[in-house]
Amino acid sequence: MIVVIAILATISLVAYNGIQNRAKSSSGQSLVNFAKRRRRPIIQLIMSTRLTVNLSQIAYRLQEQALGLA
Fold first, then answer.
1. CB under 8 Å to 64, separation ≥6 — which residues?
2. Cα separations (Å) of 50 from 39, 46, 64?
3. Which of 40, 61, 59 is CA-nearest to residue 51?
4. Exposed/middle/buried for 46, CB within 10 Å: 0-12, 13-18, 19+?
5. DSSP codes of every residue in the chain
């Protein structure tokens, strides 16, 4: 009886470890996929922000020049 319980416990432990490893792998893959999906919008946001700042600076300098402040 004890041998049967030990065998079942071993099988359960191996199965549990396999499930844990698959869950960790799946979680990691999900994070990678999320990062891949979000990378492009984040880069676009950064680039558009830089462009907006640059355009604002250009407009400000043009205003200064037009008013004779520069």
1. 70
2. 17, 6, 21
3. 59
4. exposed
5. -HHHHHHHHHHHHHHHHHHHHHHHHHHHHHHHHHHHHHHHHHHHHHHHHHHHHHHHHHHHHHHHHHHT--
**pLDDT tens digit at each of 70 positions of the chain:** 888 888 888 888 888 888 888 887 787 777 777 767 766 666 666 666 666 666 677 777 778 778 777 5
- d(Cα 12, Cα 5) in Å, to the nearest integer? 10
Neighbouring residues of 70: CB distance < 8 A, sequence distance ≥ 6: 61, 64
Matching residue, tokens 């020049």: 65
